[in-house]
Design a protein that fits this description.
Blueprint lengths: L2 E6 L4 H10 L8 E8 L2 E8 L2 H5 L11 E7 L14 E2 L5 E9 L2 H12 L10 H10 L4 H9 L4 E9 L2 E10 L4 E4 L4 E4 L11 E4 L5 E5 L2 E5 L5 E2 L4 E2 L15 H7 L1 H10 L17 H6 L2 E6 L1 H18 L3 E5 H4 L10 E7 L5 H12 L3 E6 L5 H5 L2 E4 L12 H21 L4 H12 L1 H9 L2 H11 L4 E6 L2 H17 L2 E6 L16 E6 L5 H13 L3 E7 L4 H5 L2 E5 L7 H19 L18
Parallel strand pairs: 16-17, 16-18, 18-19, 19-20, 21-22, 21-23, 23-24, 24-25
Antiparallel strand pairs: 1-4, 1-10, 2-3, 2-4, 5-6, 6-7, 7-8, 8-12, 9-10, 9-11, 11-15, 12-13, 13-14
The chain binds fructose -6-phosphate (F6R).
Fructose -6-phosphate binds next to helix 9 and helix 17.
Length: 609
């Protein structure tokens, strides 16, 4: 969502800040801006729209400085106008700030600032109250002003501050929004996320909740809430800068779809020993621990939630632990039955999703043990969990999640297998069979990708449809939901997914001649039932594309066309079954000339409620 970049050094700051913001474009934004400190003044440029708009406004010689902060904004409070873009200034224009997050009590603070302090606001944002408070509290000590200001804020924030009268440092503070400091030589950096800094440094400090960081040319000092100096280990970023680029593909999304065989392999490889034993990176649940767990809540949002839906059957099937799957945005408002016998399993690619993080904290507060499946090392969810099992998918840049989803599924298999074996509820033979199926997945995923040409042709035939339905049964329900989400988020075609058995309870009324259905039929145990559903749909003259395992011939006789995935066990079919749906959404969106990697109104990580 929003991105923050800060730079202090001896070079011109504006190019470095733009480059940093470019590294964060993948997060989605609708305006951008920067502030430089130069000769006792703060210079600000901001523009709505893409970074190129801002770039065209910073070329003048007079807009210069060796210290500055930049921001990409995704509108929450107030429309995406230039006035609402960050940085925001104090009333006297001598302090500038950029902010990620939401200030929950901003209306109250705004009223106080207007009525008691006579401040005139220039924007509709919650952020401006921070700038105005800083202006009021600044009496020559910027850190003190930051401390006094944050003591009045409620909500989530990562804020970077520069002051005209304190021209040799950037002061930043965080609570529930990510912040890192990047280490250079004779120059240092600040950012909300690692990709902003990959061009300049791989050595970073992760700033913790409540901490203040003071970044100057030669030094980065971190303080806790009591202003005691904190010693922090340097984290070395091991990703390759290239990994964050498109690597020859037209879009990140296609690159990431094609990276799935490798992501699955990586995620599996480190966890299955040669002896067939599952190792979860040092995560330990003994037999007694597992027997004591009375309930598992899988909690996540969007695509990660769809992965969670598959987790329920796995955990109940292998580990025999009752499992509920919940949307994070619902979980904490419905008084869930959580206690110290509960395992809270949260799934998040970014590890920064506000709703998931808030649900995690609530579960923790009520005594649950927290295990998370995450893709971003060092993210808030990863840090606040008792245990983390990472998906080794590599950075996922496209807003639409693909490789994170399939690797999340792999992690769920591993956790369920581990628990089933440890608890003794899954036989060695059965576990061995499933592990064999998992190990074959990278190759089968690569095989599934070969259906792209067929899918491209289908996309050409159907991209003009106004709505598309997805159905399935059992494990195929989650896949249908995920395929439908992929289609709507990047193609903007109205799409609907439903458990096939539910069709006749209402939705069947929507079927007309030429309505298009994608029918998942990858579950051998439910295959016959799916054939009956297809007959029902065809009887109403709708069009049906089936997705089935190789070798299933009858489906071909009744569908308009079938996309085959390699044959595999029912349990692992969701990993292969989703790939054709990802490809289909991509090619339809491409034909419709959509902004595939950054669809409208969406952001890569949703750090607001
Ligand atoms: C859809 C998509 C979103 C995310 C959701 C949760 O393609 O990416 O639905 O899955 O916003 O995000 P994470 O996994 O980062 O918590």
């Amino acid at each position: 969502m929003c991105g923050i970049v800060g730079y202090i050094g001896n070079e011109s700051a504006k190019e470095i800040i733009i480059e940093g913001l470019r590294g964060l474009e993948y997060r989605g934004y609708d305006s951008a801006g920067m502030a430089l400190v130069h000769r006792g003044r703060i210079l600000v440029r901001k523009e709505s729209g893409k970074l190129a708009n801002l770039e065209s406004k910073i070329t003048k010689k007079e807009f210069t400085g060796n210290l500055g902060i930049g921001h990409t904004r995704w509108a929450t409070h107030g429309s995406p106008t230039r006035e609402n873009a960050h940085p925001h200034l104090s009333a006297d224009g001598r302090i500038a700030i950029v902010h990620n997050g939401i200030i929950e009590n901003y209306l109250e603070l705004k009223a106080w600032l207007i009525e008691k302090q006579g401040i005139q606001f220039r924007s509709e944002t919650d952020t401006e109250v921070i700038a105005q408070l800083l202006g009021i509290y600044y009496e020559g000590d910027l850190i003190e002003a930051v401390q006094k200001t944050v003591s009045r804020l409620r909500g989530a924030y990562a804020v970077a501050v520069v002051a005209a009268d304190d021209p040799d440092r950037i002061v930043a503070v965080r609570k529930d929004a990510p912040l890192i400091a990047g280490i250079g030589e004779g120059r240092n950096f600040l950012a909300s996320d690692i990709p902003a800094l990959l061009k300049y440094t791989r050595d970073v400090y992760l700033i913790e909740n409540g901490e203040i960081v003071v970044v100057s040319r030669d030094d980065i000092k971190i303080f806790d809430e009591e202003m005691t100096r904190v010693k922090r280990d340097v984290m070395k970023v091991t990703w390759d800068a290239d990994a964050a680029e498109k690597g020859g593909y037209e879009h990140f999304m296609m690159k990431e779809i094609c990276e799935q065989p490798d992501g699955i392999r990586e995620t599996l490889q480190r966890r299955i020993g040669e002896d067939g034993q599952i190792k979860l990176d040092g995560i330990r649940f003994g037999k007694k621990d597992l027997e004591a767990i009375t309930r598992i809540y899988i909690v996540a949002c969007g695509t990660a939630y769809h992965a969670g839906l598959q987790g329920k059957a796995l955990l109940e099937g292998y580990a025999k632990i009752p499992t509920e799957v919940d949307l994070a945005s619902e979980f904490r408002y419905r008084n869930p039955l959580v206690d110290e016998k509960t395992l809270f399993l949260c799934i998040s690619q970014s590890g920064e999703t506000h709703d998931t993080l808030a649900a995690l904290r609530e579960a923790k507060r009520q005594g649950a043990r927290v295990l998370s499946i995450c893709n971003v090392v060092g993210s808030s969810i990863a840090r606040e969990s008792d245990d983390v099992l990472y998906t080794w998918a590599g950075p996922e840049i496209a807003v639409a999640s693909t490789k994170a989803y399939t690797t999340q599924l792999v992690c769920l298999y591993l956790i369920a297998l581990y628990m089933g074996r440890t608890k003794g509820t899954l036989s060695e033979e059965e576990a061995g069979r499933i592990i064999g199926e998992l190990m074959a997945l990278p190759e089968k995923a690569a095989e599934t990708l070969k259906a792209e040409e067929q899918i491209k042709k289908l996309a050409e035939r159907y991209y003009i449809k106004e709505q598309i339905f997805y159905i399935g049964r059992g494990a195929d329900v989650g896949t249908a939901l995920e395929g439908s989400l992929k289609l709507k988020e990047i193609s903007y075609i109205n799409s609907f997914a439903i458990a096939a058995g539910e069709l006749k309870h209402g939705t069947i009324a929507l079927i007309r001649k030429d309505t298009l259905f994608f029918v998942m039929a990858t579950q051998d145990a439910l295959y016959e039932k799916m054939l009956s559903n297809i007959e029902e749909i065809k009887a109403r003259k709708a069009q049906v594309i089936g997705i089935a395992k190789k070798g299933n011939k009858r489906i071909k006789q009744i569908c308009d066309e079938v996309i085959y995935i390699p044959s595999c066990a029912d349990e692992v079919a969701p990993i292969l079954g989703v790939i054709p749906l990802q490809l289909l959404a991509y090619h339809i969106a491409k034909l419709l000339k959509r902004d595939i990697d950054q669809p409208r109104n969406l952001a890569k990580s949703v750090t607001v409620e």
